[in-house]
């Protein structure tokens, strides 16, 4: 086997379109058919919800801020009061969107790829299934300008549709985090704007992007 | 300074909305205003183009495949004939979409974050400004099912709108890679389907997801 797809008979994967088998004249209408002037909300944000943002702040500084989990208390709308737990790396706080709602969270950050993943859950810390996948990219490389591009993706885990741990929910609360899935795009956009405003203010005023209280603990 | 945003006067960042200053009743209509039943192509894919795909193939194997740059010769529509150059890590091949069009490319992959970035350019290898940002995510974690989620983002670098090295273009070619930006979404979707079909076929048939010829060289 010395060349592309030598191990697969072409008729076994008819849905594969490569220039050798599907010439440009054939591919063009296929591509045109997938192109639309508008796309429904459900198609764009139904199963995955990705936001992109430009932030006029050096990427390493923005990454460092995000990688400190307490930054969430600043730029998110309602996640507050994070304190360490007895489990290394696991924090406990509150989502003030829900009455008496505890949030558990840990961060997995990679300084080389500048990925920052927040693994979270409402009510319990044993299974952190709400995963916020973020990445900081050097805008000089991808947009030819100083600053950062922030990518932020959530995937629609089935637990958004059914609370897997109903016994852990506080009695006073009648909602569930998954009730908000349909407004994740605008809700996260509001938070992306928070992140942008806070980081840009600090960077442009010579303040540390990551304040001591976020770094400390 | 011991608490959130202690270093910034609230009136300096009026665009920041947090539950303390913008209560839920006030935030709800703001969020509702950003929510639409349809979104124009330009808003969704104008400056950034992100695709998401589910692939029924273990994430480590899919990452390994993508991290080998010659996999591009299989799942892309028209990138072919990659060979090593005298510059370590830099490959040279052809984009058969354009007449006599050379492509230069290198891959930056991070096995811990499972990011795979292809840094590419048409015609010259000195400035690789076309950056394909990909990431493989464990679908068990984010979707509660085996397999992989693939995230793929391109950012609209200004060179898409104007060829920065016109002298390097072959005489026979009248187009430019940026002419395709408006069809990146459907074009990349076709390629995402290729990737899915190839990886799923190999995984389900017990074949190595990364064949020897892709791994070798």
From TrEMBL, chains A, B:
Superkingdom of origin organism: Bacteria
Record-linked InterPro entries: START-like_dom_sf
SUPFAM superfamilies membership: Bet v1-like
Name of the molecule in the record: SRPBCC family protein
Provenance organism: Rhodococcus tukisamuensis
């Amino acid at each position: 086997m010395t060349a592309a797809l030598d191990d697969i008979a072409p008729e076994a994967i008819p849905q594969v379109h490569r220039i050798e088998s599907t010439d440009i004249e054939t591919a063009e209408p296929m591509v045109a058919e997938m192109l639309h002037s508008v796309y429904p909300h459900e198609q764009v944000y139904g199963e995955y919800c990705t936001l992109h943002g430009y932030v006029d702040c050096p990427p390493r500084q923005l990454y460092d801020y995000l990688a400190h989990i307490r930054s969430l208390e600043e730029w998110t709308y309602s996640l507050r009061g994070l304190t360490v737990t007895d489990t290394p790396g696991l924090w406990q706080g509150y989502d003030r969107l829900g009455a008496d709602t505890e949030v558990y969270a840990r961060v997995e950050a990679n300084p080389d790829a500048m990925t920052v993943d927040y693994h979270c859950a409402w009510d319990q810390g044993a299974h952190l299934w709400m995963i916020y996948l973020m990445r900081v990219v050097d805008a000089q490389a991808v947009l030819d300008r100083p600053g950062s591009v922030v990518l932020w993706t959530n995937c629609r885990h089935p637990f958004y549709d059914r609370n897997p741990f109903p016994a852990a929910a506080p009695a006073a609360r009648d909602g569930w985090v998954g009730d908000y899935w349909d407004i994740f795009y605008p809700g996260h956009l509001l938070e992306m704007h928070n992140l942008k405003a806070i980081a840009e203010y600090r960077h442009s005023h010579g303040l540390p992007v990551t304040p001591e209280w976020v770094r400390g603990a």
